[in-house]
Amino acid sequence: ARATIGLTGLAVMGRNLARNIARHGHTIAVHNRTTAKMTALLDEFGDEGDFVGSESLEDFVASIQQPRAIVIMVKAGEPTDAVIDALVPLLDEGDIVVDGGNAHFTDTLRREQALKEKGLHFVGMGVSGGEEGALNGPSIMVGGSDDAYEKLGPILESIAAEVDGTPCCAHVGPDAAGHFVKMVHNGIEYADMQLIAESYDLLRSVAGLEPAEIAQVFREWNDGDLESFLIETTAVVLDHTDAITGKPFVDVVKDVAEQKGTGRWTVQNALDLGVPVTGIAEATFARSLSGHTEQRAAARKVFDTEPEGAPLDDRDAFVDDVRAALYASKVVAYAQGFDQIAAGSDEHGWGVDPGAMATIWRGGCIIRAQFLDRIKEAYADEPDLTTLLTTPYFANAVTEGADAWRRVVATAVGAGVPTPAFSSSLAYFDGLRREHLPAALIQALRDNFGAHTYARVDRDGTFHTAWAGDLSEVES
Ligand code: 6PG
User: Fold this and answer.
1) Which residues approach ligand 1 with their CB closer than 6 A?
2) What SS3 state is found at 171?
3) pLDDT number for residue 353
4) How remote is the CA of residue 294 from the centroid of ligand 1, in Å?
5) CA of 62 to the centre of ligand 1 (A)
6) Which of 84, 127, 244, 459 has its CA 20 to 30 A from that of 226?
7) How far apart are CA 269 and CA 111, in angstroms?
8) What ligand 1 atom has the least distance to the C-alpha of 258?
9) What pLDDT does 311 receive?
10) Closest by CA position to 145, among listed 172, 168, 169
11) What is the DSSP string of 435-475?
């Protein structure tokens, strides 16, 4: 056996990851259920490094040095289980099975447990950066045992993106920690994209700019605090003209946003953990709403008039307000995502270091952004941070942007342009900083109709009022 690592599942992500590994001087065994994909890889890219191709799973496993490290790059869910089931009987104690797909972290928990009982390591590995990242340097979030990382870490760190000489790859924690963090990464990706989409909508529908002009605005924004892959990519997409119609490309794409599940899982898990990830939730629901085409058509028929917004008296000022609102909302979305990572880590005892996550998200991944450096610094200054929002840099950004944020949300409401992510992020900010929340009334109502009890501001203990009787209060 001469390969130091193996990879099965040679669709575009798997193929690019395999090429990346080979290009970094590691001998890699490759396999695909349909052999043609494996031979095509060797034919086209075989000279990029040392590949060992096998047609059968048995030969593939036999071509890898022990303890073996085998990366699975197939669709999440059932297909992943099928490959694991086929592989396991061929493996020896101490071998490492790596799932590089977007698995649900509870599947990873289950698989890790099952393989551990067989003396095997199971590593749930989050890989971000799309096709391009897989080939030229992704951000890699690795779960699993220390022993497994000891063997895999050097290979993965060599193929990951790098920022300031630091690889964008880390051992996040045991079992499902890596896939959990990747899930939240994707949730933040949803929020980021929704905020960008709302900004575009406002610049077009309220400020009256054309897509190419908006592309220019995004290019300018990309020179400041907002500098990020998604802002840069938005400019590229908005500049693109459809070859068939000559129209802006964004006008020929159907306005129905799809999703494969990671954003939804983030929200489902946040509900279980009780973490208000309002930006991510609104972003996910906005995608759902876009998909309800029948309801949308029915609503357009009945409510056919667009509300008349007040005309803008200063377009440049509005554009700058949108930039500030976008930044403040983005800070909220990331703060919420990091809260969820902390809560998930506590729940499962993973010991995730949030600063390390900010560090490995600075390059390679879809949400890579200049301001992750600020998040990294915030955690370096204060590892047990209560919320990112109150750290000096972000508190300042949100405070400075607050007036613009309110003006943008108010203008959007007036113009009938939906901005669920902007609005909910602002509501979250206002909710957090409010001296008194109307939650007091909710507690009183709960006690009234269900004797659910309440706490008092002036005394310790749990109380109930005899609402149906003499209105006396009893301590319970
Ligand atoms: C990444 C991306 C990648 C993909 C997601 C989102 O980090 O490289 O997040 O994993 O874009 O699967 O997909 P959906 O938008 O289809 O849910």
Assistant:
1) 102, 128-130, 186, 189, 258-260, 262-263, 365-366
2) strand
3) 97
4) 26
5) 33
6) 127
7) 19
8) 16
9) 77
10) 172
11) SS-THHHHHHHHHHHH---B--SSSSS-EEE-TTTT--EEE
Q: Whose CA is nearest to atom 9 of ligand 1?
A: 186
How far is 354 from 141, CA to CA, in rounded Å? 12
Task: Kindly report the three-state secondary structure assignment for every residue of 303-327.
Answer: CCCCCCCCCCCCHHHHHHHHHHHHH
Atom of ligand 1 nearest to the CA of 186: 9
**CB–CB of 34/11 below 8 Å?**
no
Q: How far is the CA of 263 from the centre of ligand 1 (A)?
A: 9
Name the amino acid, one letter, at 281: A
Structure tokens at 123: 């590593």
Give residue for tokens 């002036």. Answer: 458
The H-assigned helical ranges of 91-241 are 105-117, 130-136, 146-159, 177-205, 211-221, 229-239
Quick check: bond before 392 cis, omega within 30?
A: no
Q: Which residues of the chain have pLDDT under 50?
A: none
DSSP H helical ranges for 51-145: 57-62, 78-87, 105-117, 130-136
Read out DSSP for 193-212? Answer: HHHHHHHHHHHHHTS---HH
Ligand 1 atom 4: residue of nearest CA: 130
DSSP 10-56: -SHHHHHHHHHHHHTT--EEEE-SSHHHHHHHHHHHGGGS-EEE-SS
Distance CA 200, CA 198 (A): 5
Distance 74 CA to ligand 1 centre (A): 14
Q: How far apart are CA 341 and CA 289, in angstroms?
A: 27
- pTM metric for this prediction: 0.96
Over residues 279-306, the pLDDT tens digits come to 999 999 999 999 999 999 999 999 977 7
Q: Which residues are catalytic?
A: 182, 189
Record the tokens describing residue 409, joined without a space.
Answer: 């949300």
Q: What pLDDT, on the 0 to 100 scale, is given for residue 304? A: 74
Question: Which structure tokens are listed for 465?
Answer: 């009022």
ipTM, 2 dp:
0.96
Q: Is 27 left (phi over 0), alpha (psi -120 to 50) or beta?
A: beta
User: What's the pLDDT tens digit per position in 140-169?
Assistant: 999 999 999 999 999 999 999 999 999 999
